[in-house]
Design brief:
rod-shaped
């Protein structure tokens, strides 16, 4: 390939913008032509991308809603566990009081006093 065919190939892809003080062609600046930057997508391709993005957006929205619902459920369950723990402590305390009361009644009653069988036989 000689120098002239190389310049012709460059001219088909790039736009030549000469500088004011440039007199020879060897120091010219070449810029890509706007049409050659990116291939144009067809409308069908763009519609497919839009549909894909819409599906992804709907899936993300569904997942976010599901996560929020699970968070609310977890909060409700956590509050319920706290309430049950509190009720459990209250009932344990009441059981201790009742147990002590029953012991006091039993010790005060003659029915529950221990009897010495050896002393009665003598």
């Amino acid at each position: 390939m000689d120098g002239s065919s190389k310049e012709e190939a460059e001219d088909s892809t790039f736009t030549n913008i000469p500088l004011a003080d440039d007199t020879d062609q060897s120091s010219r600046i070449l810029y890509p032509r706007p049409g050659s930057l990116l291939p144009k997508m067809m409308n069908a391709d763009m519609d497919a991308v839009d549909a894909e993005n819409q599906v992804e957006l709907e899936e993300k929205t569904r997942l976010i809603n599901q996560v929020l619902e699970l968070q609310h459920t977890l909060e409700d369950l956590s509050a319920r566990v706290d309430a049950v723990k509190e009720e459990n402590l209250k009932l344990k305390s009441e059981n201790q009081v009742l147990g002590q009361y029953i012991e006091n009644l039993m010790s005060a009653s003659s029915v529950f006093q221990t009897t010495d069988t050896k002393s009665k036989r003598k």
